[in-house]
C-alpha cells in the first residue's frame, strides 16, 4: 500500500517523471552505501573496544557485550528509520525544484546533518531521558532496564515503518515520546502503582506543547512569510512551479540551497539527539566503568567540585535545620516518583550533596573512581540533579538567592559529570541518519511537492516553508525541546498553500489528522505491551 513516487497525484495530474529523480542507484552507489554502513559498524566496535581497554577492564563474560551489540543495532536502526522518515524533508524542496541533483542534494544534506549532530548540545537527548521512570534509569544494566530499552525502541521502529509504508505523515518524535510514556505507564502498573505515576508529566507536558505548537508555528509563519514575500519581492519567477528539469534562476536556487542547508543542520542537532540519549542509556547500563561518568573532566576540577558541594551542603542545612532521614537516597527516589515533598527532603538533599562532594574529592578525579563504585556515584549524582530540577520546577522551597545560586552551580557540575556524549556516538548517529536519508528521500519529495496542496509547490512556497522550519527547529534545539521535522515542514508547505489561495488536498488533511490522533496512543499501547513481554522474557 506504499505510495508510488511516480504515480499521478491525488488531483489526477501527472506526477513527477522518472527523469526528475535521475537514474536508479547504480552498482557504485550501492557499494558506497554498504561500505559506509560497514565502516560505521566497524568504527562503533573499535570505539567500544578502545574505551573498554582504556579502563583496563578484564572481560570475564561476553553476555553484556552481546546485549550491548543488539541494543546498539536497534538504536541505530531507529536513527536509520528516522533518516528516511524525517530527514529527507530537508532535501525535498531543492530536489523538487531542481536546485540540486538528487544524489548531490542527499550528500549535501547528510553532511550538514552530520555537522548538526556533532555540534549539538545534548539538551534534547537528556530532556527526553528525563521522561523515563527514575527507577529504570538507575538500573539500565538490569533485565528491567534492557526490557525498557528494547520495548521503546522496537515500538518506535515498528510504528515509524508502518506509517511510512501506509503513507501516513507520522512524526518520529511523537512516536518516541509515546513509546517512553507507554513504558513508564506499564512499569508503574506492573509494580502496583497508579499508571500516571510512571511518567514525569511536567516534562511530558513541556515536550507535548513543543510538538503541538511547532506545526502551528510552521503553518502560520510560512503563510505570513509568503504574503510578505509577495508584497516586497515582485519577481514573478519566484512564484512559479518547476517546469521540466530546468533549474530555477540563480538567486532563487541559492536561496533554496541555503534554506535546505539550514534545515539539515537544525534537524541533525535536534533529531540526532533522540537516538544519542538512548544510546548513552545503553552504554551506561552495560559498560558503566567506561560511560557512567565523564572521565575526560580535568583533574583540577575535583578540588573545585568538592568545594562547591561543601558550601552547597552548608547552605541547604541552614535552610532546613532538621535531622537527616535514615536513607537519604531512598528519600530522593520516593520524591521523584511521588512528587510529594516531605520535611525530610531538603535534609536528605543536603546529605547527598555532601556525600557526592566527598566521593569526588577522595578519588581525586572522576577518572580515578574505581569500577565497582562508578554506578553508585553516578546514581547519586543523577538522583540529586533530578531532585534539584523537579524541586525548582514545582517550587517546593523558596531558597534565598545565595542558596539557589550555589545549588544551581552544584547541579551544573554534576550534570557535566554525567550528561556527556562521546564523539564516536555522535559520528555513528550521524552516519545512520545520513544513510536513512539516502533510502527514503524519493517518496518525501513527491509528498512535499505535490500531495499537500492542490497545486504544485512554487519556489517561494518551498523557500518560505524551509526558512520557517529552519528557525523553528533551531529555536527548539536551543531550549532542549524535541520537534518533528516532518510536521513543521509539511505544515509550513500547507500554510504557504493556504496563503497562496491554492487550497489543500483533503486526503492530506485526513492523513495528518489520522497520524496526530493515532500515533501517541498506538505507540503507548505498543511499547507498554512490549515492555510487559520483555519483562517476562529477561
UniProtKB/TrEMBL annotation:
Pfam families the UniProt entry points to: PHO4
Any one Gene Ontology BP term: phosphate ion transmembrane transport
Coiled coil: none
Membrane topology: Multi-pass membrane protein
GO annotations of cellular component type: plasma membrane
Protein location: Cell membrane; Membrane
Keywords from the named record: Cell membrane, Membrane, Phosphate transport, Symport, Transmembrane, Transmembrane helix, Transport
Membrane listed as a keyword: yes
Molecular function GO labels: phosphate transmembrane transporter activity; symporter activity
Transmembrane intervals: 28-48, 60-81, 88-108, 114-134, 146-166, 207-229, 250-269, 275-293, 512-534
Highest taxon listed in the record's lineage: Bacteria
Catalytic activity from the UniProt record: phosphate(in) + H(+)(in) = phosphate(out) + H(+)(out)
Family as reported in the entry's similarity comment: Belongs to the inorganic phosphate transporter (PiT) (TC 2.A.20) family. Pit subfamily.
Protein known as: Phosphate transporter
The species this protein was found in: Pseudomonas savastanoi
Amino acid at each position: 500500500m506504499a505510495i508510488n513516487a511516480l504515480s499521478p497525484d491525488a488531483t489526477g495530474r501527472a506526477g513527477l517523471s522518472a527523469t526528475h529523480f535521475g537514474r536508479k542507484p547504480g552498482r557504485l552507489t550501492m557499494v558506497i552505501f554498504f561500505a559506509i554502513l560497514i565502516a560505521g559498524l566497524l568504527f562503533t566496535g573499535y570505539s567500544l573496544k578502545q574505551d573498554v581497554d582504556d579502563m583496563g577492564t578484564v572481560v570475564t563474560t561476553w553476555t553484556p557485550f552481546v546485549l550491548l551489540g543488539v541494543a546498539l543495532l536497534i538504536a541505530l536502526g531507529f536513527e536509520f528509520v528516522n533518516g528516511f522518515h524525517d530527514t529527507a524533508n530537508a532535501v525535498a524542496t531543492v530536489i523538487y525544484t531542481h536546485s540540486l541533483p538528487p544524489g548531490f542534494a542527499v550528500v549535501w544534506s547528510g553532511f550538514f546533518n552530520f555537522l548538526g549532530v556533532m555540534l549539538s548540545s545534548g539538551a534534547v537527548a537528556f530532556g527526553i531521558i528525563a521522561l523515563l521512570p527514575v527507577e529504570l534509569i538507575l538500573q539500565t544494566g538490569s533485565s528491567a532496564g534492557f526490557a525498557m530499552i528494547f520495548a521503546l525502541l522496537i515500538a518506535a521502529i515498528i510504528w515509524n515503518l508502518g506509517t511510512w509504508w501506509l503513507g501516513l505523515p507520522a512524526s518520529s518524535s511523537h512516536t518516541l515520546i509515546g513509546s517512553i510514556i507507554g513504558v513508564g505507564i506499564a512499569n508503574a502498573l506492573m509494580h502496583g502503582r497508579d499508571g500516571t505515576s510512571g511518567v514525569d508529566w511536567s516534562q511530558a507536558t513541556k515536550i507535548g506543547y513543543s510538538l503541538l505548537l511547532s506545526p502551528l508555528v510552521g503553518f502560520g509563519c510560512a503563510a505570513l512569510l509568503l504574503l510578505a514575500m509577495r508584497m516586497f519581492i515582485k519577481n514573478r519567477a519566484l512564484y512559479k512551479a518547476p517546469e521540466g528539469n530546468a533549474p530555477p534562476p540563480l538567486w532563487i536556487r541559492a536561496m533554496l540551497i541555503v534554506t535546505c542547508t539550514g534545515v539539515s543542520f537544525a534537524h541533525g542537532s535536534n533529531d540526532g539527539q533522540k537516538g544519542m540519549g538512548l544510546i548513552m542509556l545503553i552504554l551506561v547500563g552495560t559498560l558503566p566503568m567506561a560511560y557512567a561518568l565523564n572521565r575526560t573532566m580535568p583533574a583540577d576540577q575535583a578540588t573545585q567540585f568538592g568545594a562547591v558541594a561543601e558550601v552547597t551542603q552548608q547552605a541547604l542545612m541552614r535552610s532546613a535545620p532538621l535531622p537527616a532521614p535514615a536513607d537519604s537516597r531512598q528519600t530522593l527516589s520516593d520524591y521523584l516518583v511521588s512528587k510529594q515533598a516531605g520535611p525530610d527532603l531538603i535534609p536528605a538533599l543536603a546529605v547527598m550533596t555532601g556525600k557526592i562532594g566527598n566521593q569526588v574529592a577522595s578519588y581525586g578525579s572522576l577518572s580515578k573512581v574505581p569500577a565497582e563504585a562508578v554506578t553508585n556515584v553516578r546514581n547519586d549524582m543523577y538522583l540529586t540533579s533530578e531532585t534539584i530540577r523537579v524541586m525548582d520546577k514545582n517550587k517546593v522551597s523558596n531558597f534565598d538567592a545565595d542558596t539557589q545560586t550555589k545549588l544551581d552551580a552544584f547541579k551544573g557540575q554534576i550534570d557535566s559529570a554525567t550528561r556527556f556524549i562521546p564523539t564516536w556516538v555522535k559520528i555513528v548517529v550521524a552516519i545512520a541518519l545520513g544513510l536513512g536519508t539516502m533510502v527514503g528521500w524519493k517518496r518525501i519529495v513527491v509528498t512535499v511537492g505535490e500531495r499537500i496542496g492542490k497545486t504544485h509547490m512554487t519556489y517561494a512556497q518551498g523557500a518560505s516553508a524551509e526558512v520557517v522550519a529552519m528557525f523553528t527547529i533551531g529555536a527548539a534545539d536551543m531550549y532542549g525541546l524535541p520537534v518533528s521535522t516532518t510536521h513543521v515542514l509539511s505544515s509550513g508547505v500547507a500554510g504557504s498553500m493556504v496563503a497562496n489561495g491554492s487550497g489543500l488536498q483533503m486526503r492530506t488533511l485526513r492523513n495528518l489528522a489520522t497520524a496526530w490522533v493515532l500515533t501517541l496512543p498506538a505507540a503507548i499501547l505498543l511499547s507498554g505491551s512490549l515492555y510487559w513481554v520483555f519483562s517476562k522474557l529477561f
